[in-house]
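As the work plan foresaw, the team has encoded backbone shapes as discrete tokens. One protein thus recorded appears below exactly as we store it.

:::
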Amino acid sequence: MHRYRSHTCGALRESHIGQTVRLSGWCHRIRDHGGVLFIDLRDHYGLTQCVADPDSPAFNDAEKLRSEWVVRIDGKVRRRPAGTENPELPTGAVEVYISEIEVLGPSGELPLPVFGEQEYPEDIRLKYRFLDLRREKLHQNIMTRGAIIDSMRKRMKEQGFFEFQTPILTASSPEGARDFLVPSRIHPGRFYALPQAPQQYKQLLMMSGFDRYFQIAPCFRDEDPRADRLPGEFYQLDVEMSFVTQDDVFAAMEPVITGVFEDFAKGKPVTKGWPRIPFAEALRKYGSDKPDLRNPIVMQDVSEHFRGSGFKVFARMLEEPKNQVWAIPGPTGGSRAFCDRMNSWAQGEGQPGLGYIMWREGGEGAGPLANNIGPERTAAIRAQLGLKEGDAAFFVAGDPDKFWKFSGLARSKLGEELNLIDRDRFELAWVVDFPMYEYNEEDKKVDFSHNPFSMPQGGLDALKSQDPLTIKAFQYDITCNGYEIASGGIRNHRPEAMVKAFEIAGYGENEVVERFGGMYRAFQYGAPPHGGMAAGVDRIVMLLCGTTNLREISLFPMNQRAEDLLMGAPSEVTAKQLRELHIRLNLPQT
């Protein structure tokens, strides 16, 4: 017999009854039932109930065992007594009557429980992550993550993509976040950067004649952490294709992502034939560039019903041509208490309030706005929004560029409060036609709004002749249930167009050549039209595992202060290491 096990803890069935077996694992739970000891023995594969009574030669050893001790157990497989079977367990029809126990690894007192899924402080969970990972739900999430990545690889290869690995030590690049810098010992005073994404390398692969690239790529960004973005590092399904239009990218990637979701949705419906929503329409209807389409609320422009009305606040606003009034329907929300609660919520969000109209029995509009604009306008608003008795509508007004984000928050809040969101489905969509540029109020300059390497719609002519803030790009996102899960674009592969695009954002040609020299040179020697995207592996896994925190689907994550509590990173280094790198610290005064 093998030194440690003849079977795993998930393997035994009724067919093994009567056999002598050897198991090794962790003592998951120990129960004393009137002098009979039950030990639930756990390993990676499952759990088996083992039994020792006073007649067992191993009874004295069994009494010494404690939770999470690692032991080897020998014994005979027998049928569980009638009425004690556990149909929830694959091994639930049998148990092992213990003949011998060997302690392989005793455990000290546990800083957090492994049995059960109770909440525990995050700092303890991350410091003792090796214990946390033994817990069933987290352990299963990690295994699901691996299976999802396997599904991605399989589907990408079926679509004719080949997997490449791009460098980790590279040059600093303005991708939109801070780089992690790595000092060079061999070249004093110079630094490598960890890649924010393999963007330039994957484009260079297309210049090199490779046609369809993908990679499960590690990416590094020195950003402030948040629940839906891991601090420091994350993984993405990185993709690039040559000789493609935007439609070709969609046709290749939509079945991959749909298929991955279908593989792990556990029967929940997954969108087929994704809608394509222009960026401006997404803001207008949903107040978000990553709309949650499970929420049926669609906002509408109702400016005409308030123009010249008795509600002077909105009427005066609408004298400015750019201002609008948007209505957010609230089906079933037509009670004074609910409307007042939404108004208070808006004030808590820093708004002056949230105007509303309620439609009561008989179809009459009620509330201060209804009283001011009169029954005819109130009825017209109700008709436009398709509302009925017992419903409400809420209103935001002003410059849409300034209020769309708040209106999106209000739409989400209404969907949650009125229980309108169908949580048992995955709603996927393309968001398209992103603006190429945006105005940076802080620096008073035009900036790239998305990926700086994207092709402007209209090409070089648009860059030369259009107002930059009106230029759309061949850029697109994939959204799912209110999260952006992928982003991509058709690339700007003409050197003169690349230089002009960066010039508009304040970069001179010399700076472009200096910072993107490899790609700029490559574009001079026959660059194919190309495009691609990158899908966030972590966010996709998070959605499919039914959690809202990326730390629940990552092996060894950092905390909210970007600290690795298990390994003690970031850590101080020795004076010798700093000397070798020719670095002197200039720490902030405390």
Notes: The radius of gyration is 30 Å. The first helix runs from residue 59 to 64. The mean pLDDT is 94.
